[in-house]
Amino acid sequence: MPNPVLGPVKSIGVETILERDRRLRPTLSWPHLIAMGIGAIVGTGIYTLTGVGAERAGPAVILSFAVAGLVCACAALAYAELATLIPKAGGAYTYTYSVIGEVLAWVVGWSLILEYSLACSTVAVGWSAYLVGWISAAGVDLPPMLLSGPHAGGIINLPAVLVALAIAGLLISGTRESATLNIFLVVIKMSALALFVALALPSFTGENMQPFMPYGFGSHVIGGETRGVMAAAAIVFFAFYGFDAVATSAEEAKNPGRDLTIGILGSMAACTLIYMAVAIAAVGAVNHVLVAGSEEPLAFVLRALDHPFAAWLIGMAALVALPSVILVMMYGQSRIFFVMARDGLLPQRLSRVSRRSGTPVLITAITGVFVAAVAGFFRLDEIAELANAGTLLAFILVGACLMVLRRRAPDLPRVFRCPQPYLVGALAILGCVYLLVSLPTLTLIRFAGWNAVGLLVYLVYGRTHSALRREGGEAVASLEPAPK
Predict the structure, then answer these.
(1) Residue 139 forms part of a structural domain
(2) What is the per-residue DSSP string for 424-472?
(3) Is residue 284 part of a domain?
(4) Predicted TM-score (pTM) of this structure
(5) How confident is the model over 111-140, as pLDDT tens digits?
(6) Phi-psi category of 344—alpha, beta or left, where left has phi over 0 and alpha has psi -120 to 50?
(7) Could you tell me the CA-to-CA distances from 386 to 122, 138, 224, 235, 237 in Å, in that order?
(8) Closest to 240 in 3D by CA, of 117, 381, 64
(9) What is the number of structural domains in the chain?
(10) What's the rounded Cα separation, in Å, for the pair 437 and 385?
């Protein structure tokens, strides 16, 4: 019978017969997936949160990027093994459901709402800041009340709302069409970052790197603000994740075993190099105190170095390319909602897909409205920190699933085998736990409150409507694939 605490466990390898209008179409190949990973990873984190990180760690923000990148690399290896072993939509939610149980799977799915939806909102707010800076540089002033939420004295951040709704409309039109457009946006984005490094790095001076670690390595409260290398790592961590959105596309990959491995690991490797180069160029070319005060730090650095046209180009590239992050994250969120609804934990009518486009139209529209609402009324740093909390919990569970499956079913065929799985899994868990506790106390309280509400929703609705419970699902003793 199902575990009374953790709930029933899905079978791995069992081919579920799904109704036609609840199946996703396999239309994506590895170029789409690697571009999806890069599109999600390279975004607000490097374009806008570089300044926030510099404020919290000084020039040592470079170390913050390194720490966050190492933790994400371990998580990426775990994702690559699990995604190819369990090629189903849902990512960390599905892995937890298939290895540990329904209750923790719900917690992960509920937390991923924070990762994907709030990440979309964060990028929308960052995009809005670049839009305002870019238009202002052209001598056009927009009504201030429509450019920020109530926290900054405005009414609503209208540009952030509009871009979120536009991306939702694009996703509704079709997955392959959205993924193809994303490849084009990724090329623009990476070209802009390469231009920034080429112009800023020659101005690097050792004086700007002193003092290198003004607030220490750990996470400390100084002057009412949380500072230190690890405090900065806990927020610039936002700059690295996104590869997990590739895992949510498993059912839509033409060749999941090959394509998911390339998409997850390839996107992480490509992004880590450019991130380190951008961080060194930014804080080495201009004093970190000045960088910390800007909402568009890369464009600010170029203007400070007397490259106004290049700064304008960077701003334009951000305007064009940052929506790719919204696109991929909103895609990931809609697929998490879709699978949870298909499992009965959310209303199953949300899991119906359009016969024309093959996309879950209703849940994508709901996701777009939610993202637009958050982006219109909340602060950038608070949104990013809360999104990070949801992601860190998901990564912790993925690391645990990797190790549990290696011990429970070591002979299960694996397309990709994570090297040193127990070491990698342990490092992913410990690193994510450390980053999680390094977040501000208020963020952790909000995160706990969010999950308390989530558990209440599960007990009231999800537990009683679970498709697996209705079918008499049991914790699986054998993980060998069952016959179709």
Answers:
(1) yes
(2) HHHHHHHHHHHHHHTS-HHHHHHHHHHHHHHHHHIIIIIHHH-HHHHTT
(3) yes
(4) 0.78
(5) 988 778 887 887 888 788 778 877 877 777
(6) left
(7) 10, 34, 19, 9, 12
(8) 64
(9) 1
(10) 12
Contact, 35 vs 186, CB < 8 A?
yes
Residue 58: Cβ within 10 Å count: 28
Alpha-carbon span 246 to 437, nearest angstrom: 27
**Using alpha carbons only, how large is the chain's radius of gyration in Å?**
22
Sign of CA dihedral 85, 86, 92, 96: negative
Residue-wise pLDDT for 313-371, tens only, equals: 887 777 777 788 888 888 888 888 888 998 999 998 888 877 776 778 888 888 889 88
CATH of the domain at 277: 1.20.1740.10
Buried b (16+ CB within 10 A) or exposed e, 308-326: eebbbbbbbbbbbbbbbbb
Task: With beta carbons less than 8 A apart as the criterion, state whether 380 and 393 touch.
Answer: no
Name the DSSP class of 481: P
Give me the numbers of helices (H) and strands (E) for the chain, helices first please. Answer: 22, 2
Residue 64 domain flag: yes
Residue 382 has pLDDT above 60, yes or no: yes
**Rounded to 5 degrees, what angle do the CA atoms 391, 395, 401 make?**
145
CA distances from 421 to 72, 115, 259, 307 (A): 15, 25, 21, 47
Has residue 189 been placed in a domain? yes
Domain range for 404? 31-468
